[in-house]
Amino acid sequence: MARVSRDELMNQLSAFIGDNNSDEAIALMENVSDSFESDGEDWKAKYEENDASWRKKYMERFINIGPEKDIADTLETEQTSTAEDTEVVDESEGTISFDDIEL
Predict the structure, then answer these.
(1) Cα(88)–Cα(96) distance, integer angstroms
(2) pLDDT average per 10 residues of sequence, the chain (103 residues)
(3) Rounded to 10 degrees, what is the CA torsion of 23, 29, 32, 34?
(4) Domain locations in the chain?
(5) 95, 87 in Cβ contact below 8 A?
(6) 14 closest CA partner among 27, 25, 4
(7) Dist. CA 42–CA 50, nearest whole Å
(8) Are the C-beta atoms of 37 and 56 separated by less than 8 Å?
(9) d(CA 13, CA 33)
C-alpha cells in the first residue's frame, strides 16, 4: 500500500466526495485533516493534567486558610490606608487633600 502526503490524500478524498456537503462528508474531511495535523503531542493528557493541577490549587485555596484576622484590626488598617491614599503631595504648593479638590 502506497503512502501519500496529506495534500494528495485530501485531494483524492475531495474528488471522491465531490459536491456532497452532508454532515458525514464534512466530518470525514475534518477527521482525515485532523489526523494528519497531529504533532505527536498528547493534548488530551496535557489538558487533563493541567485541569487536575488547577482543581487541586483551587481546593487548596479553601483548605489552607490562614488564621482569622480580628475585624477591628482590618477596619483600622483600611481606615489608615484610606486616609493615606487621599493625600497628594505637590512639592510646589504643599499638601493637597481629597477635600481640596473641587468637583
Answers:
(1) 5
(2) 82 92 92 76 87 91 65 62 54 70 74
(3) -80
(4) 6-63
(5) yes
(6) 25
(7) 12
(8) no
(9) 10
